[in-house]
Structure formats: structure tokens, C-alpha cells
Amino acid sequence: MKIYDISIPISEDMIVYKNRTEKKPVFNIVADYDKNSVYETDICLNLHTGTHVDAPLHVFKNGQMVDKYPLEKFCGDAIVIDLSIIEGCIDREHLTDKDIQINDIVILKTKNSEDAIFNFDFTYLSISGARYLSEKKIKTVGIDGLGIERNQADHATHKELLGQNIPIIEGLHLKDVKEGRYQFIGFPISIASVEASLLRAVLIEK
Amino acid sequence: MKIYDISIPISEDMIVYKNRTEKKPVFNIVADYDKNSVYETDICLNLHTGTHVDAPLHVFKNGQMVDKYPLEKFCGDAIVIDLSIIEGCIDREHLTDKDIQINDIVILKTKNSEDAIFNFDFTYLSISGARYLSEKKIKTVGIDGLGIERNQADHATHKELLGQNIPIIEGLHLKDVKEGRYQFIGFPISIASVEASLLRAVLIEK
User: What ipTM did this prediction achieve?
Assistant: First the structure.
């Protein structure tokens, strides 16, 4: 059994959305061996840092919170689709010839996984692509950008997917994973009454 | 397939170690629907909040950091051992008649799972119990207290286990789980250069 780690490590110098300072996690060592017999760290971060999942509350007023997702949404059959050759956005036409099954966890691999710095022109999923995934009745979607859309003022892609109760996992790292079928596991941290949560995502080779 | 969530939800009013104010997580809503088109939360917390894993750096100067644990440490065959009748500490003699196998993830269920407030007399694992688990060459240990030991100035239980490269998962919630064998899954969040990390832990009924 081979386990692929498809998560982005959280660190002070990690890539954050649009390089915004307020999106950088802050680490504070609250005990160390100069003065204490243990070592302990506090961390402050935005819940959309690195590998995370969005819940409906992120884009819908009074939307469902992340702790209401059933755990089953975060494990099961997954398909990694390699769309690395696409510039700009992933549309319906890029997905229709792929073997997407009902209840799949669909992992969109793009050239974002190759970025060493934040790319303002990152590849994203268009509303037509999102509608196609909804129609296919997938379980969950993941992508290797820190956003599944960019500069869409109405958040149409988020609303299409989250409106269909399809969790959106952003900030995956897919450089080392090939197109194909896997088992996905990535249960989000249990946090009450919020719009997103962090997770460690893995793919297991069948 | 039944999935048991054995994690403690993170919230502002959750139980924290010895009720220390600085151990309480702080939530900050940085965008909401009064002023924005999305909802976003920042969170500040100690890495030993709720369900988390300790790495050697927590008790050993220059000890291994949490991101160096192989993922295999956090999935696989698990045994839940019900020790709810025990007061005080779990010793070697409480474990020797249990069916602990090499490479098991050993989950210690105690009366801690019934506590609604922080119990300063929580049940913990003594050095003799820890040595027994090391001798049995287990993979990982978990317990439902926020500490696997208490008031041991030398951190003997932590040092015995972490010194043998056995990850210690603290803060499990085991009230709804019976003694028996399961599959455990609980990959910690990928955080660079720290002594602990948060995780969502589940047990899957075989």
C-alpha cells in the first residue's frame, strides 16, 4: 500500500492567497528548553491556509458549517484528472471525456502544483466545469490551487458546488501524483461553528 | 462501514488543560456578510488543543519534529482497551491480559471520556504501563485525556514512548466506542518544524 501525501505543509514562509500578509500563519514558541522542561507552540492562522475544505457558510449567509459535513464525504473512491496542459480555466469540455463516476471524489491536477510562488493567473474551475461535476453527482472536489476560482465577484463556482453540498478542498499538492484512480482520505479537523477547516489529505494507490 | 468520530471539537468553550486561559483557542471572524461577500475565520491555538499528537521535540531538546513521522504511523489495525473502571493510573498489570499485537495502534479508553469539565485527577498512563507498550512494539498510542501523564516532573511516560518513536495521541473522545478491534485513521495536519499537530481521528468498524 503506497500512501501519497497531497497536503501543503503549514509554515511561516508558505505560499498564501495573493501573498496577503494577513494570510500568513504566525508561529509563537510558548515554551522551550531555555526556560522549560517541554517545548510548545501556538499557531494563528486563517482557516483557508494550505490544504483546507470550504463549507457553504463560506459563500452563503446562514450556510451550513464545516462540522455538519458527514465524515463519509472525506474518504472513498477518487479520480485524479491531469489537466496540467490547460491555461486559464477548466471548462465542461475538459472533463466530459474523463471517467467520472457517481459519488467520486474528483481531484483536479493542474499546473498550479508546479508553482513555487503565488501565481495570480492560477488555473481555476469555471462555472461550466462546476456544473458538469454537479450533474455527475460527485461526492467531493479537490484542486491544487488555493482557490477553486479567481476574481469571480459572484463566487459562482463555489456557489454551484457548495449549493449542491459538494465540499471544496483547496490547496492540494499534486505534483507527485499521476492521473488515475485512488482511495482518498482527508478528514477535516473538527472545529465548531466555522466556514472551513484544515485537513491532511492522502491518496492511497489501489 | 461505520465510522466513529473520536475527536474533540475545537471551540472557544472546549475543555483545555488545567483550565488555563492561555490554552483556550481564540476565534476571530475576519470577514462576514455585514461587510463582505464571504465569511472567513482566523483561529489562534496551542498545538496541544483537543485531539493532537505529540512528537519527540515536545519533551526532548533537539527531538524529532512532528512532520518527520511517517504517515503509516497514523493508520492501521487498532485495539480499543476499556479501562474505565480504573482510578488514578494505568499500570502494566492492567494491560498484560489484553490482546495487544505488534504494530497495533493502542487506544486507551478511560473514565476521562465521561468528563464534562477538566478533571485534575484524570486517569493517566504510568511509566510501567508505557514500558509495557514499548516492549510490545506497538505502532502508536492514544488516550482520552488531554495528557497521557500528569504531574510527573520528569515526563517519564512521554519520554519512554516518544523515545521509542511511538507517537502519543492525546485528547481522544471515546465515550461512544466499545472495547474491540478497529481500523484507525488520523493523519495529523502537516505543520513544519513543530512539536505537535492537530488531527481528526476516526475508528472504522471491521
Answer: 0.97
How far off is chain A from B184, nearest CA to CA, in Å? 12
Q: Is B40's CB within 8 Å of A46's CB?
A: yes
Query: Closest partner residue to A190 among B7, B33, B193, by Cβ?
Result: B7
**Res. A27: pLDDT tops 80:** yes
DSSP A128-189: HHHHHHHHTT-SEEEESSS-SS-S-TT-HHHHHHHHTT--EEE-B--TT--SEEEEEE-PBP
Residue of B nearest to A158 (CA): B38
Q: A196: how many CB neighbours lie within 10 A of its CB?
A: 25
B41 close to B32: Cβ distance less than 8 angstroms: no
Where are chain B's structural domains? 3-11+47-205
CA distance B22 to chain A (A): 10
CA R_g for chain B: 17
Partners of residue B200 in chain A, C-beta under 8 Å:
187-190, 199
Q: What is the pLDDT of residues B11-52, one digit of tens each?
A: 999 999 999 999 999 999 999 999 999 999 999 999 999 999
Domain B3-11+47-205 CATH superfamily: Putative cyclase (3.50.30.50)
Kindly report the nearest CA distance between residue A82 and chain B, in angstroms: 24
Which residue in chain B is spatially nearest to A5 when comparing CA positions?
Answer: B71
Do A87 and A124 contact (CB within 8 A), yes or no? Answer: no
Residues of B in contact with A51 (CB under 8 A): 190
d(CA A23, CA A196): 14
Residue B93 identity: E
A46: nearest CA in chain B?
B42
The CATH fold of domain A3-9+47-205: Glucose Oxidase; domain 1 (3.50.30)
**pTM of the entire structure?**
0.97
